Amino acid sequence: MDPFADTLRRLREAFSAGRTRPAEFRAAQLRGLGRFLQEHKQLLQEALAQDLHKSAFESEVSEISITQSEINLALRNLRAWMKDEKVPKNLATQLDSAFIRKEPFGLVLVIAPWNYPVNLTLVPLVGALAAGNCVVLKPSEFSRSTEKVLAEVLPRYLDQSCFAVVLGGPQEMGQLLEHKFDYIFFTGSPRVGRIVMSAAAKHLTPVTLELGGKNPCYVDDDCDPQTVANRLAWFRYFNTGQTCVAPDYVLCSPATQERLLPALQSAITRFYGEDPRSSPNLGRIVSDKHFQRLRGLLGCGRVAIGGQSDESERYIAPTVLVDVEETEPVMQEEIFGPILPIVNVRSLDEAIDFINRREKPLALYAFSNSKQVVKRVLAQTSSGSFCGNDGFMHLTLASLPFGGVGASGMGSYHGKFSFDTFSHHRACLLRCPGMEKIYSIRYPPYSPRKLRVLLMAMEARGCSCTLL
Ligand code: NAD
Q1: Which residue has the higher pLDDT, 468 or 1?
Q2: Measured in angstroms, how far is the CA atom of residue 222 from the centroid of ligand 1?
Q3: Cα–Cα distance measured from residue 213 to residue 210, given in angstroms and rounded to the nearest whole number
Q4: Fewest CB atoms within 10 A around its CB: which of 110, 112, 227, 251?
Q5: Cα first-last separation, the chain
Q6: How many Å lie between the centroid of ligand 1 and the Cα of residue 119?
């Protein structure tokens, strides 16, 4: 018995009937999504508190308002984004109409993780709906309370002939992925990303993979240690470190480490108090499995700050590790928790070499008072995104694409990038039916003169274009 077949058939029928194509329909869905957020903000905040002990502040900043901004942006620009995009033409097509049409793919599957269970489920949904697709949404089974709200309340705000929430873990996902989708948007671990991509390959379904990894953070000797420490601590311990773009480890000289440690201690105490465990602003680890994994990582190197944990609450203190070896587990896997190892390097060159010997990260950070240093890190490395002198502030700009490169993922979204990701860019040329006399220059019998004229007519005008 296939639990998904009926739902998917219903959605496919709605798409084939053209239900999701009109701009009015798309806008109505986006407005519905906005109403869901406004009317159930408190319910969502409570669910996030239950799942991750997330503070109302962090829920608002990183989950609800960011989703609402995406909705507002899409509503403001929907018609402009949907418009056919005129492209430059050559002499041979001067009288024709050449444009790119943004078409919905059809039936889209969005698979989300648990760490920002509202944002990472609904922001892709905004793009998928705006682009006119039917959508199957699969929230994470680990953020149970949020999953429940998304499954039980959200569908009331959207057209259910075009939209569905499905639930399940790896086993159900195996079944779901046997079905053909027209696009799969996956956010999660590289391990599951591979499973999703293999399943998609069977149907030649295109994918976006938003994955994780280890994000390096270079701290130059020429910096103000307290400013760096404030920014590092906020972005590392935000959502208890369970953030795909969080700085994962620091690269700095031993001298900078000595200046950074008291500054980090000061920042942690100011942010979370003498006993961070009683702070309402620090979350908890999502599951026992992740808690045990993180507790294991506390044994790497030497604890310089924090290090306390409590299994009954899945609490781990904001921690800084020093004397860490490259070969230790904390430097081998994505940390995804409130632990910040510091690795010593002797120079900027050594830091750049350290970064480039590893997989390309999702995000890369460099702190320095010297613009040259920041620009050198930017120029000599690669990553999904880069921020100089701060943490993941670049995520607040919908004008920047968000996505990985290499092992940290493929494809991107946010703002118009989301709309484009969920749209097929169809190349269109509408020619006039007449003018056959002139166009017959293309036909055999061929001659050197015909070739010369044709090549000239097909030469790009105002754009680079490849022929045929
Ligand atoms: P995960 O890969 O375990 O799960 C993600 C989703 O995949 C969940 O909905 C889960 O139910 C589903 N899933 C699990 N097993 C599956 C299977 N066998 N087949 C198909 N689907 C399956 O990831 P997670 O633990 O929820 O999230 C943490 C990871 O996600 C980290 O690696 C983190 O870096 C990454 N992440 C990336 C981004 C990004 O935007 N690039 C954002 C957040 C998290």
Answers
A1: 1
A2: 38
A3: 10
A4: 227
A5: 48
A6: 14
Helix axes 144-152, 41-52, angle to 10 degrees: 150
3-class DSSP state of 263: helix
Question: At which residue do the structure tokens 């991509």 appear?
Answer: 197
210 assigned to active site: yes
Q: Report pLDDT digits (tens) over 352-398.
A: 999 999 999 999 999 999 999 999 999 999 999 999 999 999 999 99
Residue partners of 321: CB distance under 8 A and separation at least 6: 298, 300, 301, 302, 303, 304, 330, 339, 340, 341, 342
| CA atoms within 13 A of residue 395's CA, in its CB half-sphere | 23
SS (H, E, C) 78-128: HHHHHCCEECCCCHHHCCCEEEEEEEECCEEEEECCCCCCCHHHHHHHHHH
Q: Are strands 319-322 and 423-430 parallel, antiparallel or unpaired?
A: unpaired
Question: Measured from the CB, is residue 115 less than 6 Å from ligand 1?
Answer: yes
* Residue 253 token pair: 């000289």
Q: Is the pTM of this model over 0.85?
A: yes
Q: How far apart are CA 276 and CA 237, in angstroms?
A: 11
- Burial classification of residue 192, based on how many CB atoms lie within 10 Å of its CB (0-12 exposed, 13-18 middle, 19 or more buried): middle
Q: Is 392 in the pocket of ligand 1 (CB under 6 A)?
A: no
Q: Which residues, in sequence order, are CB contacts of 107 under 8 Å at separation 6+?
A: 8, 11, 12, 15, 133, 134, 135, 136, 181, 182
Question: What's the CA-to-centroid distance between 95 and ligand 1, angstroms?
Answer: 50
Any ligand 1 atom below 6 A from CB of 334: yes
d(CA 328, CA 315): 23
Tokens of 366: 């460099």
User: What pLDDT shows up at residue 1?
Assistant: 81
Q: What is the pLDDT of residue 462?
A: 52
Tokens 């956010």 appear where? 187
Of 210, 223, 252, 334, the catalytic one is: 210
Q: Is the CB of 195 under 6 A from ligand 1?
A: yes
Q: Which two tokens stand for residue 137?
A: 């949404």
